[in-house]
Amino acid sequence: MTAPRRPGLNVKGLNDGGMDDECLEGKGLDLEGIQSSGDSGDQSQEDERNYFAESRQGKTRGRALQTAPRDAAINPDEHFHGHRDRLRQRFREGGDRALADYELLELLLFRLIPRRDTKPIAKALLARFGSLSEVLGAPAKLLTEVKGVGDSVATDLKLVASIAHRMLKGELSGRQVLASWSSVIEYCRAAMAFEPREQFRVLFLDKKNALIADEVQQTGTVDHTPVYPREVVKRALELSATAIILVHNHPSGDPTPSRADIEMTKLIIDTARPLGITVHDHIIIGKDGHASLKGLKLV
């Protein structure tokens, strides 16, 4: 089979094929026409080269676009770099008031999860637990049930909660507790509002009503904690405390005191009074607020 002639052959190429000028004229072909046809063929080849060059460039651009999302997934730091910088700048300029709860949590997660988009994780944590306080107060095991939160992130979140709790405790140490009652409530809420089981704790005070110690006496179930009045009074004598504040939580969230809460409080008051120990109050902490038995005139 004879290969077809490619466009762009000149007169010399035709003569090499065995045809003279007369033969060409005999076939009605004009030499000038053939020469100009050759020029057209050269232009055709140039157009063809340009076409395929453009096609290759188009394919290269297409492949680049197809691989861009994959590259972004591999190195998401570049994708979220601007967003993180803007969020940090807002915090620097306006403090925590400039950010929503999920943005504050997202800002914290930047350090804990450096190579992922932390906004969905922050929103998922708030959706699961309800508030920023509840996220930090949640048990580490429950935190890890949220997608994107591993053991190390859960541990770091609990570390932040512990630091906040220690700061609040520092505000009470050496000060008259009764003079800063709001600080007492904030401290107790941070310590136990989101605990999954009931805790009974006692704040031991000296004769100036300054905090000596804060101790968890008992931990019970979701709706009950055993309390031993003699043990409470015994520990107060060991610490040379002259006054105490009783505190326990309701994991259900409702801080309304039960009849058992009232009776137990009266029993401790009656046991402590002969020994010169005053029970200032019994505070019940819940997710939805707090209740003071003294404020309710129940003791």
TrEMBL record:
UniProt xrefs under Gene3D superfamilies: 5' to 3' exonuclease, C-terminal subdomain, Cytidine Deaminase, domain 2
The keyword Hydrolase appears for this protein: yes
Occurrences of domain MPN (ranges): 177-299
Low complexity compositional bias, start-end: 32-43
SUPFAM superfamilies noted in UniProt: JAB1/MPN domain, RuvA domain 2-like
Transcription regulation as UniProt keyword: no
Keyword annotations from UniProtKB, A to Z: Hydrolase, Metal-binding, Metalloprotease, Protease, Zinc
InterPro entries associated with the record: MPN, RadC_JAB, RuvA_2-like, UPF0758, UPF0758_CS
Pfam families, alphabetized: RadC
GO molecular function terms listed in the Swiss-Prot or TrEMBL record: metal ion binding; metallopeptidase activity
Region described as Disordered: spans on this chain: 1-62
GO biological process: proteolysis
Protein family: Belongs to the UPF0758 family.
This protein's name: DNA repair protein RadC
